[in-house]
Design a protein that fits this description.
- The protein is mostly helical.
- The chain has one domain (7-145): Winged helix-like DNA-binding domain superfamily/Winged helix DNA-binding domain (Arc Repressor Mutant, subunit A, Orthogonal Bundle), CATH 1.10.10.10.
- Helix content is 66%, strand content 8%.
- The chain has helices at residues 11-30, 37-48, 54-61, 65-77, 99-119, 123-145, and strands at 52-53, 81-85, 93-97.
- The chain has a three-stranded antiparallel beta sheet.
- Strand 2 and strand 3 form a beta hairpin.
- Helix 2 (37-48) crosses helix 5 (99-119).
- The longest helix is centred in the last third of the chain and has 23 residues, at 123-145.
- The two termini are 22 Å apart.
- It is found in: Cytoplasm.
- InterPro entries: HTH_MarR-typ (IPR000835), MarR/SlyA-like (IPR039422), WH-like_DNA-bd_sf (IPR036388), WH_DNA-bd_sf (IPR036390).
- This is MarR family transcriptional regulator.
- It comes from Dietzia cercidiphylli.
- It holds the Pfam family MarR_2.
Length: 146
């Protein structure tokens, strides 16, 4: 395959631009809920399964604990989550939603619906986009592993 080095032909740039546009749209919408986009992602994971360890959250979000821990600290200071030592292992910290964290779920659902309406794309296109994005991540992870 010949290298086409034009910017508008780069898959990586299309992904980057889409990610920036998506994150900006969420940033604006989430401001009313007092959440940043990374905090919203943590909340999504915890609404799905409350009581995850920092390690489990990192695995789900593809983040290391050095990135995730300060994020969780800010969320704890905001009263959205609390941290607890898990069992007998002092190194394992479990993150649990507070009542305030649980209460944000309905507002987040409204935000999600409003952003999907703003996109105005067929559901099939969104599902295909998600599938393709996951394929890109998986392919790059496989390449890094070898």
């Amino acid at each position: 395959m010949d290298a086409d080095l034009r910017l508008d032909q780069q898959v990586c740039f299309a992904l980057y631009a889409a990610s920036r546009a998506s994150t900006a749209a969420y940033r604006e919408a989430l401001a009313s809920a007092g959440l940043t986009y990374p905090q919203y992602l943590v909340m999504l994971a915890l609404w799905e399964e409350d009581g995850l360890t920092i390690r489990q959250l990192g695995d789900r979000m593809l983040l290391d604990s050095g990135t995730l821990s300060p994020l969780i600290s800010r969320m704890e200071a905001a009263g959205l989550v609390s941290r607890h030592r898990a069992g007998g292992d002092a190194r394992s910290v479990t993150v649990v939603l507070t009542d305030a964290g649980h209460a944000l779920r309905d507002e987040a659902g409204r935000i999600q619906c409003s952003l999907l309406e703003k996109l105005d794309l067929p559901a099939e296109d969104l599902l295909e986009l998600r599938r393709l994005a996951r394929n890109v991540v998986a392919a790059l992870e496989r390449a890094d592993a070898t």
